[in-house]
Design a protein that fits this description.
Blueprint (H helix, E strand, L loop, with lengths): L3 E4 L22 E6 L2 E7 L15 E5 L13 E9 L3 H4 L3 E9 L1 E6 L2 E6 L13 E6 L10 E9 L5 E4 L3 E5 L7 E2 L2 E7 L16 E5 L13 E11 L7 E9 L1 E6 L2 E6 L14 E7 L7 E11 L5 E10 L1 H13 L1 H9 L6
Antiparallel strand pairs: 1-20, 2-12, 3-4, 3-5, 5-10, 6-9, 6-11, 6-12, 7-8, 7-10, 13-22, 14-15, 14-16, 16-21, 17-20, 17-22, 18-19, 18-21
Helix pairs in contact: 2-3
Length: 353
């Protein structure tokens, strides 16, 4: 029942990174919505309670982007936190938005209003620098407030030499050629390690499952040691349904998957029951046709079974949502090959490699 799966033969850096022509400047694929360059709040040390953005402790002022050594914190290596407030309108939130954080030395984790939205590199125990990757993180609309302030919070770990949010055009951006989702599914999904075919059922009680942000690697959300099977679940509502089928777009999945809508399989990538990872499935865009008989007016349930063979896992990058067939076909055909062209603009090779 799968309409299409598109193999992207390109390199994907650790972050949802974008580097046009080996510079730090976002190109014409992006429109800046909020300029976040300037004064941020900053404090040394490490406390995950600061991710909420509610702490009013001893924060100092620092300019972003700049190495913190150049802002008065010479010789410091270790953890530090940044935060900044901003405002958005309902019209802006209706668009597909991304947070650009430029280049961070060495590792970062990012929250919007206390909701995790992404990370690059590894804090440890298996430390891995993300120094060479530009940070571009999808911001789910459900995490944003159109009344009052929003808070972006960034946890940074620097291993040696310079540290911090060091360079780039920092801000909130809209992707000009992003797919036109009828229903955007980016945001909080229910998540459970393990494997049970009953978890595809629309009436399965998943209230005891954990909440994970999609898209996003599960390792960066508390599951560092997880290789093997896990399931995701979410729901969406079709109002005034026209009786037509839809496309379920799940971005990029590492490594293998099966997707179910209202308990019925609609597609999959790779030989998941044989746990046969060929090594390239993580580069394939998941886009599955939902026949009209699988849908219902009102509440619908999506369940995704994922198998990760090694390293990173989960529904980790790209657009996630429900599209009308005609919008999907238009997106596929336009802009340098549509889907492939749009992904290439987001995932092209980092200019510092």
């Amino acid at each position: 029942m799968r309409l299409a799966v598109f193999l992207l033969l390109l390199y994907v850096p650790p972050a949802l990174g974008f580097v046009p022509h080996s510079t730090n400047e976002p190109n014409s694929d992006w429109q800046r919505i909020v300029d976040l360059r300037g004064s941020w709040q900053f404090r040394l040390g490490d406390d995950l309670a600061w991710a909420s953005g509610d702490d009013d402790g001893a924060w100092e002022s620092i300019f972003v982007p700049a190495a913190w050594e150049d802002e008065g914190f010479w010789g410091y290596d270790g953890f530090a936190w940044y935060r900044k407030t901003f405002r958005v309108t309902p019209t802006q939130v209706a668009r597909t938005l991304f947070l650009h954080l430029g280049r961070v030395d060495d590792v970062d984790e990012v929250w919007i209003n206390g909701h995790f939205i992404g990370s690059t590199g590894r804090m440890g125990p298996a430390y891995e620098t993300g120094y060479h990757s530009l940070r571009v993180y999808r911001v789910p609309s459900e995490y944003l407030r159109t009344r009052g302030d929003n808070v972006v919070t960034v946890r940074v770990y620097d291993d040696e030499l310079g540290g911090g949010i060091v360079e780039g055009q920092i801000g909130l951006y809209a992707a000009r050629n992003a797919p036109e989702m009828e229903i955007d599914l980016a945001g909080a999904w229910r998540f459970q390690p393990g494997d049970d075919p009953r978890w595809s059922a629309p009436d399965w009680d998943d209230r005891g499952w954990q909440s994970l942000t999609v898209p996003g690697r599960w390792e960066q959300q508390g599951y560092w040691q997880l290789d093997g099977f896990a399931w995701y679940r979410t729901t969406f509502t079709l109002k005034d349904w026209d009786g037509q089928g839809r496309m379920l777009v799940l971005g990029l999945v590492d490594d293998l998957d099966e997707a179910f809508v209202n308990g019925e399989r609609v597609g999959g990538t790779g030989r998941i029951d044989r746990r046969n990872v060929q090594g390239y499935e993580w580069q394939e865009l998941r886009a599955y046709s939902i026949p009209p008989e699988r849908l219902r007016e009102g509440r619908n349930t999506v369940a995704v079974r994922v198998y990760d063979g090694f390293v990173d896992g989960g529904i980790h990058r790209g657009p996630v949502g429900v599209m009308r067939f005609e919008a999907f076909e238009q997106w596929r055909e336009e802009d340098e090959g549509g889907i492939i062209g749009w992904f290439r603009s987001l995932f092209q090779k980092n200019g510092w490699d």
